[in-house]
Amino acid sequence: MYRVWLRPRLWAGLASTRPASSGAAEPFLSGSSGAYVEQMYEAWTQNPSSVHKSWDAFFRNASAGAVPGQAYSPPPPLTHSPSSPSPRVTEGSTHQSMTNITEHLNVQALIRAYQIRGHNIANLDPLGINDADLDDSMPPELIANEGLDMDKEFTLPKTTMIGGGEKALPLREIISRLRTIYCGSVGVEFMFINDRQKCDWIRQRFEPPGVFQMTDEEKKILLARLIRSTRFEEYLAAKWPSEKRFGLEGCEVMIPAMKEIIDHSTVRGVESYVIGMPHRGRLNVLANVARTPLERIFHEFNPMLDPQDEGMGDVKYHLGTTNTVLNHFSEREITVSLVANPSHLEAVDPVVQGKTRATQFRRNDESGKTCMSILLHGDAAFAGQGVVYETFHLSDLPDYTTHGTVHMVVNNQIGFTTDPRVARSSPYCTDVAKVTCCNISNVYPFNPIPMLRALQSQSCTSSRTLRMHMGTRVLMTTVRFTTKDDALQ
Ligand SMILES: Cc1ncc(C[n+]2csc(CCOP(=O)(O)OP(=O)(O)O)c2C)c(N)n1
């Protein structure tokens, strides 16, 4: 309200300073200066000493109700002539305000640097072989200038929400919040997206204080699901130690993560899920997400099966299933379809998209509100198989789109026998997906709460979702330790 009242007054004050007969227009009266003056006014309302003294005087006068022409006092001339009045601003204070401006600009650059590069030093590389830049040094732009006073308060720019309700914070607190958000167990990459609205949307989901917290009830559900997923892997490992298992060990959190996506999107109306994935973790997904009866899965390990029997050999990692299950979160019946895995890595991706599109078509669903696809990948296959890139490029075409897919990459930092340093040329295995400007979160699975929060906030939460609201792909890559099981298979 105050601002609305002041603005006409502010402009009236400025307008009246135009010399009636002078042909030279005042530079601050040009159309393009409006935003600048308003920005300064915003900054002044937060902290009067953050603007130049002459502006401080002007804003004070205008807000005190000075009549047009009296709020403004002209700045000192650039050249000093004996006839001109002596400058009212001392050299010391000019220098101080220049320092102030420079410091604010430095802090703004630092905030932006964390948004762009914070993921480079996030805790994502348990083996020390996968640093984003293929080196593990701190990017220089993330180091605050030595001269900056850590206890000084700085006005936060509009491009960050780290303040929550606060408009200014001490530099020490700014850096601490940025490090928690961008350099912990979630490394979010989004500043390459050339859509300001999407970037703001993501900042709103990641930056406000407290967004990575969970209620006790949510924590209990997460723990129960983690136990079910972990115990399943342990049981297979203990019971059939010499069988191929393509285990999910170390990344069991993928199961609660998938269930989180399903829970929250089904509340928003999704009734049918089409899932595609390779062999790794497939039995766990069959058991805990698609709810295939455990006895059916275990039966396929039976050494007495004949070659022609269902489940013999590798088949248990290749067959698909479709089940209708009751989702306890939404109390709704949903259909979960795990598409058969043809062994040729990633070949299932376009098949899943085709099946999803066909289901949406049959349901007269033109925006993907009732059927969605989820694709799981291995790190080496995601980076190395051309069909991934091709499928991503089809994803926004009007005749092919499925209105957003959640992709999850299980990154065990090995592709058969090859480690990432000699497996691909890009820093991250997910870089190929950047062609379509999708948001990418790199997460460390041993800290599941931030991981689930990040996933939930982008793909499927409450009233607005990145996937559903903006029809956008969401990509999550989970880095985990390589286990003996990976190396054997
Ligand atoms: C197109 C294709 N090429 C090669 C293979 C053989 N192969 C099976 S698993 C595998 C390694 C895949 O590594 P990654 O994608 O990282 O998944 P991981 O098994 O490590 O989870 C390879 C090369 C295959 N199945 N399909």
Word description of this protein:
The chain is of the alpha/beta class and 489 residues long. The protein has three domains: 2-63, no CATH class; 92-184, TPP helical domain (Helix Hairpins); 216-303 and 313-487, 3-Layer(aba) Sandwich (Rossmann fold). Helix content is 39%, strand content 11%. The chain is built from 16 helices and ten strands. The chain has helices at residues 2-15, 33-46, 53-63, 91-117, 171-182, 196-206, 216-239, 254-267, 282-288, 294-299, 348-362, 379-384, 386-394, 448-459, 466-470, 484-488, and strands at 153-155, 168-170, 186-189, 272-276, 321-327, 332-338, 371-378, 405-411, 439-443, 474-479. The protein has an eight-stranded mixed sheet with strand order 3-9-10-8-7-4-6-5, sandwiched between helices. The protein has a two-stranded antiparallel sheet with strand order 1-2. A hairpin with a 4-residue loop joins strand 5 and strand 6 (332-338). Helix 4 (91-117) runs parallel beside helix 5. The radius of gyration is 29 Å and the shape is elongated. The relative contact order is 0.10. The model is unreliable at 1-6, 15-27, 460-473 and 480-489 (pLDDT under 50). The structure holds thiamine diphosphate (TPP). Residues 280, 343-345, 378-381, 410, 412, 414-416, 486 line the site of thiamine diphosphate.
